[in-house]
Write a structure and sequence with these properties.
- The chain starts with a strand and ends in a 7-residue tail after the last helix.
- The protein contains two helices and five strands.
- A hairpin with a 2-residue loop joins strand 2 and strand 3.
- By secondary structure, the chain is an alpha+beta fold.
């Protein structure tokens, strides 16, 4: 198997979408699921390296949400309002 990391935007994480990713044999389109989280792993069956027995492994793609370098006022205002009405604690579990 081959493991790689894929940087995604906050909107791709929330809304999902399709992105092109490099694999051993070239490039493929991958569907980012709606509500994706950093660290989530997507499996691309038979897109890895060929083993000694001729069996092709998988490619595992670990998602990493990457924020923009600068947070503009519109995003900051939206997130403050969202946090007030949708607060949750991901560390509670």
């Amino acid at each position: 198997d081959v493991v790689s990391e894929l940087a995604i935007t906050i909107d791709e994480a929330v809304l999902g979408g399709k992105v092109e990713v490099p694999v051993v044999s070239g490039r493929v389109m991958v569907t980012i699921p709606k509500g994706a989280s950093s660290g989530q792993v997507l499996r691309l069956k038979a897109k890895g390296l060929k083993g000694k027995r001729g069996v092709v492994g998988d490619q595992l793609i670990r998602l990493k949400i990457v924020m923009p370098k600068a947070i503009d006022e519109e995003l900051e205002t939206f997130m403050k309002a969202w946090r007030e009405s949708h607060a949750y604690n991901p560390r509670a579990e």
